[in-house]
Write a structure and sequence with these properties.
272 residues; mainly beta; Elongation Factor Tu (Ef-tu), domain 3; 2 domains; 8-stranded mixed β-sheet; 6-stranded antiparallel beta barrel; 1 helix; 17 strands
Length: 272
């Protein structure tokens, strides 16, 4: 299966969810007015206008592995786009249940082949200590340096896989977009908005026209009552809010709303 990397023009698809995958995760959709969306897969139900984060940065989603078979550049050029790894060191995490890392990445962490990045097209399952799952990479990716059985590889899910409403905490992972519709459940494919004017639900502290905003923290102190995935000023003298500046900026406020849990109009600057 091949996918377009960018789609263009007005489309009703941004207001739909689907149980069927029709694009590579992370595919870019650009509208004529400058709004941009990225194709994503939900990890849970998500309400409309909520800032979303990637839930991939946990033990089972970012792991290290060693190849069990060497792969030369000549083999790659001849059409063998596979890498086989051993799950021995990370078997307890169940890291490679079927298709868990589709559209994710393998990269060279150390030793032969370090510094390279390859995208995963599909892979076999491997959930026991003796497993040697095989990862098939996208044909357009090039292996420029051969790997050996002593190479150290990293494996990670796609940034737009398993995304959920962001908690505002550092542990919530990177901000990846805003849900333009209500997503009904986990494992739904949809277009998350990443750039341009977008309604976002406001937190307890008023945002300011033209000022930067970040995702609000849903736990602790004065912020305990905020709606998950809401936006807050990028900086505040409030001790409970000052750490928000550590979160990636979502964008800036175009039109502030009148009260918390109302919707601002925010100009997103997450991914162009």
């Amino acid at each position: 299966m091949s996918f377009d990397t960018t789609q263009w023009g007005k489309t009703s698809e941004i207001y739909k969810e689907s149980s069927t995958k029709t694009n590579m995760l992370g595919t870019r959709l650009a509208l004529p007015d400058g709004r941009v969306y990225r194709y994503a897969k939900s990890g849970a139900a998500i309400a409309i206008g909520r800032v979303c984060g990637s839930a991939m940065y946990v033990t089972a989603h970012a792991v290290a592995a060693n190849p069990t078979v060497a792969r030369t550049t000549a083999q790659w050029d001849a059409g063998t786009y596979t890498i086989q790894v051993s799950t021995t060191a990370v078997a307890t995490a169940g890291i490679v249940s079927a298709n868990r890392f589709d559209d994710g990445y393998i990269w060279g962490q150390n030793a032969a082949g370090e510094g390279q990045l390859l995208q995963i097209k599909s892979h076999t399952a491997g959930t026991t200590a003796a497993s040697t799952p095989t990862f098939t990479m996208y044909e357009d990716d090039l292996l420029t340096i051969g790997i050996t059985t002593t190479s150290e590889l990293g494996i990670i899910k796609n940034l737009y896989d398993n995304i959920v409403t962001h908690t505002g905490l550092v542990a919530g992972g990177p901000v990846v977009g805003v849900a333009p519709i209500a997503i009904s459940a986990a494992s739904k494919y949809f277009w998350a908005q990443t750039w341009g004017p977008c309604p976002t639900i406001r937190g307890r502290i008023a945002t300011i026209r033209g000022r930067a905003v970040v995702v609000g923290n849903t736990t602790g102190g004065d912020t305990g009552a905020v709606v998950a995935g809401s936006v807050y000023p990028g900086y505040s003298t409030d001790a409970k809010l000052s750490t928000f500046g550590q979160q990636p900026n979502i964008g800036f406020t175009l039109v502030p709303s009148a009260a918390d849990a109302d919707f601002d109009l925010t100009y997103l600057t997450i991914a162009p």
